[in-house]
């Protein structure tokens, strides 16, 4: 069995799977010979294969799991088979990767790199993008005290921005860009506090829509959970959520019968926390 292609011998001769496996062996041997003849491993940097956006083809079906698992196994095989001539990197969302369950999964731990963005890294990213945008060697102070207002609703602007977006580059960049766009629409040279507040509303609506789309495959019921938080403050007690959830539990179970195990009060909390929709207030801190 090679990456999902299973070889078998039938009474009438080689099966279609066996023929495909043989063809794959011939192709790999030819590529390996070409790398050796050209001395690629010594004379050139390795050929780098990058595979991204696997979430676009991801579903909860077994075939989807087999596809991603096959890609992981193929990437590891390519590296070992072609030596230093080829390298392969797969970018997989953590929530997808963590659901994969296959026999050789433990062999990938040493190859995993989990990318997490710190507040400092996102601030550096914001400063780099701002420098590229205006074409000037901006400093941190110039960005957050001159281009942006010093504070928004009494909170330092950088704190305000980063507390209201998920800790990942695309969210940070989108929020900053919409602040700039609204300031441009208003004819402002610098971004004002009102611009940031207007951007917050627009960005929030975008993110609510994007969140449901992003997790449509793994949590197709996500959009149906948002009404649980309508007409409430930003702090919601568990008892209030339980009461609201009970009012729509039967409907959710009927519409999403394959996900009833997740559609409990605790399951809903876990899902919403996992996707970044809610946080947890502990003392004076929110996590």
What is the number of independent domains?
Answer: 3
Distance between the termini: 46 Å
Helix content: 40-55%
Number of strands: 8
Biggest sheet layout: 2 strands, antiparallel
The side-by-side strand order for the widest beta sheet comes to: 1-2
Proportion of beta-strand residues: 5-15%
Spell the H/E element sequence: EEHHEHEHHHEEHHHHHHEE
Give the C-alpha Rg: 25 Å
Averaged pLDDT: 84
Count of helical segments? Answer: 12
Low-confidence stretches: 1-11
* Shape type: flat
Structural class: mainly alpha
Describe the fold and architecture.
The structure is a single chain. The chain has 287 residues and is mainly alpha-helical. It folds into three domains: 9-111, no CATH class; 116-214, Helicase, Ruva Protein, domain 3; 219-287, no CATH class. It has helices at residues 16-37, 40-43, 62-82, 94-97, 119-134, 140-147, 157-163, 169-185, 193-214, 222-225, 238-255, 265-274, and strands spanning 9-10, 13-14, 47-51, 86-90, 151-152, 155-156, 281-282, 285-286. Residues 1-11 have low confidence and may be disordered.
